[in-house]
Design goal:
single chain, flat, mainly alpha, transmembrane, membrane, about 100 residues, PspC, cell membrane
Length: about 100
């Protein structure tokens, strides 16, 4: 059977999504690169993401909690595992892997 146009579009979308992942930014960082990584993922300015975190914190929603959670979950650029994965591996006594 031959490929249809929909199959080709699905493969193109899958290829684009494979390379696009949440990563903490090494270049666009103020504290830990979380806002820069989120901004890179969505293609927006990092200052907008930082402003959203500040507004969430001021309005009572814990922007700090969300930031720390993202810091633990998002791996840095060039690393395979997140900080949380590394902590869990160390707790289990397994060697760290990057």
């Amino acid at each position: 059977m031959g490929k249809t146009a929909a199959d080709g579009q699905a493969e193109d979308m899958n290829d684009r999504l494979q390379g696009k992942r949440f990563r903490r930014s090494n270049d666009n960082r103020f504290l830990a690169g979380v806002c820069g990584g989120i901004a890179d993922y969505f293609g927006i300015d990092a200052n907008i993401v930082r402003l959203v975190f500040v507004v969430l914190t001021v309005l009572g929603f814990s922007g700090v909690f969300v930031y720390v959670l993202a810091l633990l979950i998002m791996p840095a650029e060039g690393e395979r595992h997140s900080l949380l994965e590394q902590i869990i591996r160390n707790f289990q006594g397994k060697p760290g892997q990057n």
